[in-house]
Structures are given as structure tokens and as C-alpha cells.
Amino acid sequence: AGVARASRRDESGNWQAIYGRSKIMDMLRGAQNASMHRYLTSLSTYGLLRHLTDKKLKALFRAMQEAGLLMTTGGEMPLLTLTPKGEDVMQSRCPAKVSPRGWSDKPRPGGEATSGRSRAAQRVLQGLALGRTDKELLSRLRELRRDIAQEHNLPVYRVLHTETLRELATLKPTTLEAASRLKGVGPYTARRYLRAFVELIQAYEGVD
């Protein structure tokens, strides 16, 4: 998932790369440095693979490219995105068969991914999928905003602007810290209303 949230879909539905491998790896490791784009730190996949060392994460990316799940663009600064096969794995339409060499602590005979290795590959792919708004989640967020606005006798835009709701439904931040970084979320909004929206996203994503 990590690779998918750092890519965009074009008009034909294909994935378009916008970040290089190093930037995506930093996002998945939860890196905190000046070059880390604010958008990447707000993704729900930020820091998902912090348990892997830099060496192991590089080995995982190589294995996923060898398995046909990732591809790079040409040029002086190649960018990384997922393939149609990678999207199938991300959506659990087929298993991820990834070599464990160099990144998995317990390699098994035959080299195919166990369920744990498959989940790690899925997290990378999901993190590369950027820009696809979850319409069902957006609908639920709109309902919550309406309920809060009615409770406080406010117009809905005073709770959260629609564009902010779209960012919540696209990025799916599962912590107050990540959600508070989004455009349109000021200190008052974060303190008064944001927790309810984050809790809805947590429930929707199955996050405790």
C-alpha cells in the first residue's frame, strides 16, 4: 500500500509515479527529516515498516520489482510506482509471491512469501496509491460533519470544509497528529471537532 499512496491514477486508470524509491522508503520507515514532504507524513502508511532496517527495506523493494509488482520510470531521476500485477496484490486479488532473500528473518524453502511477507508487500504497494478518494468513507465523513453542525447549530463549512473532507477520505490519517497537518485544519478545529473524524477513520480502517 505504501507505493500506491505515493502515486496517482491518470485519466485511463493507470498508476503514475510521482516519488522516487528513496522518498517512499523514508515514508514507510517513518523518517523525520527536512526533505520529507508534509503530505507523506500524513499518510496512514507512514512508518508502517519502521521495524525493517534500511538494508532490509531495499532488499524488499528489489524483490518486489523482480516479482513484477513495482516498476520505475526512465530518466535521470527515476520514479517508482506499482504495476497492474502490483495493484492486484494490493487489492488481495492474488497472493504476493516475493523472494524472502535479504529482508525476511526466516526464509523458507522455495522462496515464496508467507502470509507475513505478503502483508509486508501489500503495505508497500498501498503506500504508493495516492490520490484515490474513498467515496464510501467520504459519504460517512459528510454525515458526521452534518450531525456535528446540527448539534452546534453551525453551517457545515464551519466544522470542516469539503476539500478537507476529501483529503481525509484520500489520505485516511488514523492519528490526530497526522490529521491536524491537513490543509484547512486549524488549531480550533483540531481541538473541537477533529477527534470524531479520526475515530471514524480508525473504525473504517479497522485500527484500534
UniProtKB/TrEMBL annotation:
Any one GO molecular-function label of the UniProt entry: nucleotide binding
The record's section on InterPro entries has: HRDC-like_sf, HRDC_dom, HRDC_dom_sf, RQC_domain, WH-like_DNA-bd_sf, WH_DNA-bd_sf
User: Known catalysed reaction(s)?
Assistant: Couples ATP hydrolysis with the unwinding of duplex DNA by translocating in the 3'-5' direction
As recorded in UniProt, its EC number(s) are 5.6.2.4
Give the region (Disordered) as residue ranges. Answer: 93-119
Which Gene3D superfamilies does this one have?
HRDC domain, Winged helix-like DNA-binding domain superfamily/Winged helix DNA-binding domain
- HRDC domain boundaries: 131-208
Query: Which top-rank group of organisms is this from?
Result: Bacteria
Gene Ontology terms: biological process: DNA repair; DNA replication
SUPFAM superfamilies (alphabetical): HRDC-like, Winged helix' DNA-binding domain
Q: Which Pfam families match?
A: HRDC, RQC
Q: What is this protein called?
A: DNA 3'-5' helicase
